[in-house]
Design brief:
single chain; extended; mainly alpha
Length: 217
């Protein structure tokens, strides 16, 4: 155990400095915000007084654990927020596709196991650790960068310039999809667009994946 601490001492010191830095800034900003809210509550302006009262009752008066739960679980579930996680380590399995389903709690459970920490609650205690992503032996071979095959600044052509009628139709439908928000596109229509864009119009769409006609319209 002492060897592990000595080996990771620079990282521990860096984490200590970040903790102190964040604590100081939190105290300073919290004090300024508290003074501002306290001052606003004495001002005879109904709107500002109401906003300050709402802030105190629903934010300052809410336990920190509840605020963290809402921030990390309720808001992402409510707004459909998605993000990516990158597993970079000498112990990461190379040249493999792992299809095991993981989620945020799986990340937490994996970090707990690496650090030798007990589970915080039942959710991470029953979560699936990311065993399939790691190997028991380290591979220190440098990563090989793969250049992109498609220019990153390439824009889809105008549908009028697409000669194939089927691809032109799906290109027009693709331009009308609600892509600015997550999980808003009709699944079957989006699957058709991606299939024919990758396979071409001559490759039949698999019959087992066909959904209802209403979903494609």
């Amino acid at each position: 155990m002492p060897d592990v601490i000595i080996k990771n001492l620079p990282f521990l010191l860096h984490g200590l400095w970040l903790t102190v830095d964040l604590s100081v800034w939190s105290i300073v900003l919290g004090t300024l915000l508290g003074l501002a809210v306290g001052t606003v509550r004495f001002v005879r302006v109904p709107v500002l007084n109401t906003l300050a009262a709402v802030y105190v009752e629903f934010i300052r008066g809410t336990p920190l654990l509840v605020v963290l739960f809402i921030s990390y679980f309720a808001l992402p579930a409510l707004f459909g927020y998605r993000t990516t996680a990158y597993v970079v380590s000498p112990y990461t399995k190379r040249k493999q596709v792992v299809s095991t389903q993981y989620n945020t709690v799986s990340l937490i459970r994996t970090m707990e196991l690496i650090l030798g920490l007990p589970p915080m609650n039942q959710m991470d205690a029953t979560a699936t650790p990311m065993f399939d992503c790691f190997s028991l032996s380290a591979d220190n071979t440098p990563f090989s960068a793969m250049p992109n095959n498609v220019p990153l600044d390439q824009i889809n052509p105008d549908p009028k310039k697409i000669g194939d009628p089927l691809l032109r139709r799906y290109a027009r439908l693709s331009g009308r999809l609600p892509l600015k928000a997550p999980d808003q596109c009709p699944d079957d229509l989006l699957n058709h667009i991606l299939w024919f864009a990758m396979k071409g119009s001559q490759t039949p769409y698999p019959t087992w994946a066909v959904s209802t006609a209403e979903d494609r319209d």
